[in-house]
Amino acid sequence: MALPLDLLEKSINQQLTLLLKDGRSIDGKLLGFDEYMNLVLDEVEETKDDTKRRLGRIILRGSNVVSISLQ
Question: Which of these, 19, 38, 44, 65, could form a disulfide with 55 (CB 3.0-4.6 Å)?
């Protein structure tokens, strides 16, 4: 069985889609993470209720993430 941090390690520099607790969707390239699953993402685009906006580079707190998928 693969552990979540091991899967994140293999996903460095890949495009991810994240679903957040508040219903937003985040698309971006994973640059790094820590043991709490806080994520550093680049080229980020946020989608909420058919509204998209570019955020650039962000740090996302791991406790806000509901699911992560590779694009």
Answer: 44
Please report, in tens digits, the pLDDT of each residue of the chain (71 residues total).
678 888 899 999 999 999 999 999 999 999 999 999 999 999 999 999 999 999 999 999 999 999 999 98
The pTM assigned to this predicted structure is: 0.91
Domains and CATH numbers, the chain: 4-70 (2.30.30.100)
Burial class (CB in 10 A: 0-12, 13-18, 19+), 64: middle
Ramachandran sector of residue 9 (left: φ over 0; alpha: ψ -120 to 50; beta: rest)? alpha
Q: 37 — alpha (psi -120 to 50), left (phi > 0) or beta?
A: left
Do strands 15-20 and 51-60 pair parallel, antiparallel, or not at all (unpaired)? Answer: unpaired
